[in-house]
Design goal:
Layout lengths: L4 E7 L2 E9 H10 L1 H15 L6 H11 L4 E8 L2 E11 L2 E9 L8 H13 L5 E7 L3 H9 L3 E8 L2 E9 L1
Parallel strand pairs: 5-6
Antiparallel strand pairs: 1-2, 2-3, 3-4, 4-5, 6-8, 7-8
Helix pairs in contact: 1-2, 1-3
Length: about 170
Amino acid sequence: MIELKKGYISITKQNYNYELLDGHTLINYMKTKKNLMMSFENILRKYRNNPLFQLIKIIQEEINIYPEDTLYLIIYKKDNLLSCARLNIKNNYCYLNMIVVNEKYRRMGLCTKIINKCILLTKNHVKKYALDVEKENKHAIKCYENNGFAITKKTKKCNTDIYIMELHI
């Protein structure tokens, strides 16, 4: 079992909070840290281009399907989410998805920071990381390649060209 953690991460000479959470903890945060979770949900609504997106539904589905295999890494300051990633971990394998950076904080190296923190916090339990990215998302592809990921497969998802990228530790 991967230990849930929290701490600080330095970005452009400023410290921000990070937390590695399970779904149950994240649901509790929705009750106690409402403004932060509203920030999280709004970023995902924009990212998914869905104004009706509900974070709690996704988390509850993950808990029901993968009760102990899904973790969330969030980077935030006060009530503002800067970046997040979801980690589905099983049998030395981690599928990273929902890697999102708040538009206000882009071009600060947050994507690299969150990927590196995901790997650092899980490397004793994971030997292979994978993610998928839209072929047109050149900035994300470059970031992932700069962090050691390589394109291993091309496929389609919802009529969109997708690259599967992997990193072996």
